[in-house]
């Protein structure tokens, strides 16, 4: 019996040491998983283009003076917000809405097709994950983009509203939280 006691203590120590090693190894694997595979939080700021010149004979009008003033307001609001990329559709009204902000930040305006939300989301996911992105869209595409990012469903923006601003925070889980604000003149 006296000889069995040291073997029992040695066996217990061996089991204890291996248990501690497995616990440390497990912690390292879990830590490595979260460091390598976690998705960063991405912020997408969405607006509808500013006021346009009403001309029934022109399908691609410029901004009106009120729209130009609203575009300048974006510079004041977001000139120091840490925006990494700017997207706008192929139409002059969206391009002119973001141009003052792009000029202030020294960023190019990435052009996307107004009917291709999937392409926009792919570009944001592959090129701007974890960054702050500014997007100028249209009364129907802005709610579509919000929903595609994982946010709630919003109705189409009324034709007469140009002051809606949406800040969409896309979390690691793919879910999104949306803050809806108003900016500039109503």
Provide the succession of SSEs: HEHEHEHEHEE
Shape: elongated
Question: Might you state the CATH topology name of the largest domain?
Answer: Rossmann fold
CATH level-two architecture of the largest domain: 3-Layer(aba) Sandwich
Helical/strand content category:
alpha/beta
Compute the number of helices.
5
Low-pLDDT stretches are none
CATH class of the largest domain: Alpha Beta
Distance between the termini: 91 Å
Q: Which strand order does the major sheet show?
A: 3-2-4-1-5-6
* Main sheet makeup: 6 strands, mixed
Beta-strand fraction estimate = 15-25%
Helix content: 40-55%
Q: CATH superfamily membership of the largest domain, which one?
A: Phosphoglycerate mutase-like
Give the averaged pLDDT, no decimals: 89
**Rg calc:** 26 Å
The tally of beta strands, per DSSP, is 6
Number of domains: 2
Give an account of the 3D structure.
The chain is α/β, with parallel strands linked by helices and 186 residues long. The protein folds into 2 domains: 1-38; 42-182, Rossmann fold. The chain is 44% helix and 19% strand. It is built from 5 helices and 6 strands. It has helices at 4-37, 65-78, 92-105, 117-127, 141-148, and strands at 42-48, 85-89, 109-112, 132-137, 164-170, 176-182. It has a 6-stranded mixed beta sheet with strand order 3-2-4-1-5-6, sandwiched between helices. 28% of the residues are buried. The model has no long low-confidence stretch (mean pLDDT 89).
List the SSEs and their pairings.
Elements: H1 4-37, E1 42-48, H2 65-78, E2 85-89, H3 92-105, E3 109-112, H4 117-127, E4 132-137, H5 141-148, E5 164-170, E6 176-182
Parallel strand pairs: 1-4, 2-3, 2-4
Antiparallel strand pairs: 1-5, 5-6
Helix pairs in contact: 2-3
């Amino acid at each position: 019996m006296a000889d069995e006691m040291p073997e029992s203590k040695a066996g217990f120590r061996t089991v204890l040491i291996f248990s501690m090693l497995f616990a440390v190894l497990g912690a390292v694997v879990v830590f490595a998983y979260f460091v390598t595979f976690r998705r960063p939080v991405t912020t997408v700021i969405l607006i509808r283009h500013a006021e346009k010149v009403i001309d029934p004979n022109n399908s691609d009008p410029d901004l009106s003076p009120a729209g130009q003033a609203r575009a300048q307001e974006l510079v004041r609001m977001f000139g120091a917000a840490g925006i990494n990329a700017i997207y706008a559709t192929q139409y002059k009204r969206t391009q002119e809405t973001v141009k003052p902000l792009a000029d202030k930040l020294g960023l190019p305006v990435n052009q996307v097709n107004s009917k291709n939300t999937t392409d926009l989301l792919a570009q944001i996911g592959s090129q701007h994950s974890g960054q702050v992105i500014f997007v100028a869209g249209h009364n129907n595409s802005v709610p579509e983009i919000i929903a595609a990012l994982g946010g709630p469903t919003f109705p189409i923006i009324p034709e007469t509203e140009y002051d809606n601003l949406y800040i969409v925070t896309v979390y690691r889980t793919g879910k999104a939280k949306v803050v809806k604000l108003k900016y500039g003149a109503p």
